[in-house]
Design brief:
149 residues; alpha+beta; Aminopeptidase; 7-stranded mixed β-sheet; 4 helices; 40% strand; globular
Length: 149
């Protein structure tokens, strides 16, 4: 499986992936284009696009704990795999790439309850539950410096 940085030429394929995983949204093309412009999208390819993840670097901030050095936090916005190939290991490949690139920082994400077990395999811990846009969600955190899976 080949993982690479997404380019603007990938926009149509990413919109199709988004529509098939997240659902059709009026602003999906604009949302994805914003990530592409900033270079924050990685995709899996194997003849056609199978999956992608989006990291929001705008939300990459220095955090401070009382009496310690500052540390970085990165927010994972989306991990998407076409439904027809879910369960074939593409999500694992995306997460391993993410951890390789950003594992030295704290990684945070929102997910639905049904995905908590998936993220726990990558050392994420549930830290808070909330209701967002009418959907029960969980905030999960992977502490910086943990070994890659």
């Amino acid at each position: 499986m080949m993982l690479r940085k997404a380019m603007m030429d990938d926009l149509d394929g990413l919109v199709e992936l988004y529509d098939n995983t997240i659902g059709r949204e009026r602003n999906a093309r604009k949302h994805i284009r914003r990530y592409l412009v900033k270079g924050n999208v990685r995709v899996i390819e194997n003849m056609s696009m199978y999956g992608a993840y989006f990291v929001d670097v705008n939300r990459l901030k220095l955090r401070f704990k009382k009496g310690s050095l500052p540390y970085r936090v990165v927010w994972l916005d989306q991990v998407m795999v076409f439904p027809r190939v879910q369960g074939a290991g593409y999500g694992r490949v995306l997460m391993e790439d993410l951890i390789e690139r950003y594992g030295h920082m704290e990684i945070r994400l929102f997910c639905e309850h049904k995905l908590v077990g998936f993220y726990e395999k990558f050392e994420f811990e549930a830290v808070h539950e909330l209701r967002h846009n009418g959907i029960e969600q969980v905030i999960m955190v992977r502490k910086s410096g943990r070994k890659s899976i």
